[in-house]
Records
---
Amino acid sequence: MGQEDDETTTATISNSIAKSLEVITNVASKSKNLSGPFIKALKMATMEIRESTATLLSRTRTEETRALEAANARLSKELSDLREELYNVNTPSKNRNKQ
């Protein structure tokens, strides 16, 4: 856990869940050892998980967007400060070279 988990995007999570649900669907469809009620239960559970995941991911995207906007604002301010600092460092040296 830690920073690596913070960098996991909603798209990565969504893809992981979709792949896992696809495996469940394939097992339910192709298994010869499962009877009808179990297959139906697996398919229903898969469908409910897909719907719930879509809802959660849409909420998470909103939070992720807010976090990215805050990071963008912070980085823009930092870039502006660095440009000003670079200008202040370079301006006096250019004036000294002219004299």
---
Amino acid sequence: MLVERPQPPLWIRLLLLALLPLMALAIYLHGQREVPERDGAFMRKAKEPVKGQAELSTLPRVLQGLPRFGNLRHYSVETLYEYINGHAEAFISAGFERLYVVEFAPEGAKQPSLVAELYHMGTPLQAFGVLGDETSEAASPVEVGMMALQSGEQIQFIQGPWYGLFSRYDPKLDLVKAAQQLAAALPGTEQAAMAFDFPAWGAFEETRYIREAYRGLDFFNTVVERYYSKLDGGRTVFVIQQDEAKLSALDAQMRSFYQQEGVPMTPQSWQGMPYLALEDKYEGSWFIVRAPGRLWGVWGEATEAALKPLHSLWQQRSKAAGKP
């Protein structure tokens, strides 16, 4: 049964209605007061340059004879979807930190002739991973930055922690030359030493970056894999480059896993270099070599042809770390 609640007297309701405009006036007047801390912070913010101008001050103002078109645009993790809605999550999960978009066009033009999308991915390795994910198989290598591929009117490149997508809308422009000039001007490229320590096994056919769970193993993350078709009829090697603490934890987790799975692990040595040989019923024979800051895994038997170049790498890393 519903019970009707008693209403307040009419005079109380009228008084409350009369107070509303007075409250609004009081709030307005309070907002007009001079508050130095608040007003000073507001003025400082108003005078700050557009975010990204300082970081990208090294970028050219003119490219291929074309001046900048419009303002430099900046996107963060929170706003990336505004630029690449539907694909932002793939970049964010790959380590994305920020994006700048800079365009160039002739004076008076209504549309840009060159558009550069510059994604800061945090590390060169993560930039390399995005390049591998974003390029098509039909793309051809070109000499831009640390590594680049061209497909039609676009060049995708990496330079230090940057992944760049450079697009041309005027076929008369030299796309490669423009991309070279832009990549060379990017800041933070002292990180460009993305030297993956692969053994000198000759020509290789493919290099891939696997962000996590390499071959379904959740302890093998941030892996770079390379395939050599001419060595021993075809060899695949992977390398993980991390600090010693992380590699030691990975090594312990790996050994624990294979011990539980009943996979035979046999310590071996070749000319003083220790390695671990495994016999996996699913993956077959393969072996692992550890050095300071490096872990190599090689699929297949430990032949002399495979071990000798690895031994050179192992010696170099050990010497650099001050180990005999």
---
Amino acid sequence: MDFVNKVEKNGALDAKTKELIALSIGIVKNCETCIYYHLNEAMKLGASREEILEAAWVAVLMDGGPSLAHLEYVIKALYAPLIKAINEPYSKQ
């Protein structure tokens, strides 16, 4: 764990940037658990939706189609509360 703590703390790159990089790698590696973990950590560190989506699109740029399929997890996680709020009035009918 000492290694992980040293890598994740602020250095030449701040912790938020490192989490955005880790999110991109999770997308490229097709690791759903990694995607959700690093997305949440990035948000805890103050990453905006725009920053998260931009990092995700960098992964798609570098990896192509396979990463595009995993972009769905990022979009669902970012917009789930909004989608729920929009659909809630209709679910009561």
---
Amino acid sequence: MATVVIEAPPESHVEASSSAEGWMKVHAVLVPGRMALAAMAPSEMEKLFFVSSFSVADPMSPAPRKHGYQRDPMEPRMPGIARYFLDGDNQFLITPIIVSVRLDDEEDVEEFIELFNAGDIDGIHKRWHRGVVSVVDGQHRFLGLVKAHNDGRDF
């Protein structure tokens, strides 16, 4: 499985556009077929990411009951995390969110990167499944970013 570290958008890109919507890009492949760095907007994260939690069925889970591996997200934490990102310049102080792209075949990984760079989330889901991009670390930051984006002023 490939690991992708999702980082905050570069400040210059956000300033150059009226919105961070509609862009996704793998910026560097660090270990071919295994690790890459990418950036994307919270609106795209919301559509693409899957949190493999205990209470949600996970199509890729090896567990007999197909449950996920992370604790359930703590909803009461989301407003505080969203407020943090909406305050001052904190939208640019996002630590990486680590996701697993659940693909083993090298050609699948290459196709995933092509679809990702094209911003084709529907194509990714049609080609594989909804759980193909699973959050490994940063589920609360991810969900807080999404809340900030959905609540926010020009976020």
